[in-house]
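Hi all, posting the design record for the shared folder.

TITLE: backbone redesign
STEP: 1 of 1
STRUCTURE INPUT:
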């Protein structure tokens, strides 16, 4: 048939790009979960460091004010996590099963269950409205995360949250979508001319290839956030007295060097808490 070789080559190219994108999307989910878990570890370290500084007597007013601001931000983050966890649990009960696991079944990470939804919701920045997921309420963040994992909500033409075989379109994190990947099956292959099919397949392959580059860029940014989170952990652990270690609990008894170290610790603590809401991909969405 005329242009049959061209059609075959174009479709194979599209299939290859879709598979590459699917693999990268799975990695993106796993990296998001890794960041979420690392942030949980940092949260424990932050809480211990906060308790230590808060117990020091006669602290300067400046340090006390910074501690209050840190406490406020930490409480907001903790409440967000609790609200998010409650929403995922409620969704699971309403669905009569693990809706989060169902949503990620097609991503090959079903065993992660709710952790995948938590990872996406706390890591990524854009829901369908363009609002930061980390700034949404628990219910909105849960819905955005599960819809992302399921390839988009039913209203948006996606497979919905329970689409086990849904393609992991990046409609959430970057506001795009691999529209028209269905060219690989359906009426177009049966009813259109080979050249038209080939041209459409090549067009879609370019779209997927563009998304693949963005996905890999997001993965790199998440890796940076994981590294930053670990650095905060190390810095705070090194400066926080561990069990059995002696320390001065009165600021007035500290040497100038010790006061400087305490001030440094307060700054690190504040930056560490601020890092909980850092969202990857902002530079890629411009």
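Okay, here is what came back for every position:
SEQUENCE:
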């Amino acid at each position: 048939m005329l242009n049959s070789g061209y059609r075959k080559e174009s479709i194979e190219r599209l299939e290859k790009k879709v598979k590459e994108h699917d693999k990268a999307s799975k990695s993106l989910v796993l990296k998001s979960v890794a960041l979420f878990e690392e942030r949980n570890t940092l949260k424990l370290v932050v809480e211990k460091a906060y308790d230590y500084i808060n117990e020091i007597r006669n602290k300067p007013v400046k340090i006390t004010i910074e501690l209050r601001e840190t406490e406020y931000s930490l409480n907001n983050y903790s409440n967000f996590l609790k609200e998010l966890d409650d929403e995922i649990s409620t969704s699971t009960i309403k669905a009569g099963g693990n809706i989060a696991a169902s949503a990620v079944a097609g991503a090959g990470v079903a065993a992660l269950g709710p952790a995948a939804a938590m990872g996406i919701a706390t890591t990524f920045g854009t829901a369908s409205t363009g609002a930061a997921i980390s700034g949404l309420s628990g219910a909105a963040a849960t819905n955005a995360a599960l819809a992302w994992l399921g390839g988009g909500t039913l209203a948006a033409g996606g497979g919905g949250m329970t689409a086990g075989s849904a393609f992991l379109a990046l409609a959430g994190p970057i506001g795009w979508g691999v529209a028209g990947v269905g060219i690989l099956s359906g009426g177009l292959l049966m009813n259109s001319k080979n050249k038209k099919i080939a041209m459409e397949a090549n067009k879609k392959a370019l779209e997927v290839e563009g998304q693949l580059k963005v996905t890999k860029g997001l993965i790199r940014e998440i890796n940076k956030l994981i590294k930053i989170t670990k650095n905060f952990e190390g810095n705070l652990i090194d400066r926080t007295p561990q069990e059995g270690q002696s320390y001065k609990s009165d600021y007035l008894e500290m040497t100038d060097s010790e006061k400087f170290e305490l001030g440094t610790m307060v700054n690190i603590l504040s930056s560490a808490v601020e890092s909980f809401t850092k969202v990857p991909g902002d530079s890629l969405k411009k």
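COMMENT: The first helix runs from residue 4 to 55.
Let me know if anyone wants the other runs.
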